[in-house]
Amino acid sequence: MAQNKHPMKVAMVSIFVADPAKAFKYYTEVLGFEEVMFMPEHYIAIVKSPLVPNGVNILLEPTEPGGIEIARQYKKKLYEMGIPVMSFSAEDIALTVEELKAKGVKFKKEPEKTDFGYEAVFDDDNGNYIQLIQID
Fold this sequence. Notes:
Number of domains: 1
Helix content: 25-40%
Low-confidence stretches: none
Strand order of the largest sheet: 1-4-3-2
CATH architecture: Roll
Strand content: 35-45%
Distance between the termini: 29 Å
Largest sheet: 4 strands, mixed
Mean pLDDT: 95
Radius of gyration: 16 Å
CATH class: Alpha Beta
CATH topology: 2,3-Dihydroxybiphenyl 1,2-Dioxygenase, domain 1
């Protein structure tokens, strides 16, 4: 298969949240992400990992007020099913989990050995499960 002459990269992904201001505070103060853009009056909150300055941004996409109904349903069903909406990685999952627990993060699944490394799942306090992985 031929390589594109003008390849693309992922610039931004979305996580649906009811309240972008609440989510922004959690993602920056608890999870340690950095602000890219925060305009709460316009329901815009974008964060990024401090480890990858030019990496993928995360848009904390509002489902309220006046959000798209299908987005609310999608978010709710994934949470009810226990399915993570996104994966984050850690160099040392045990230390990361310990640090997050000290900040009050609730884990649905403790770190567990898998075929690819280790996996844990936590609740982002905004109605989403996030997978945390460490690849061996």
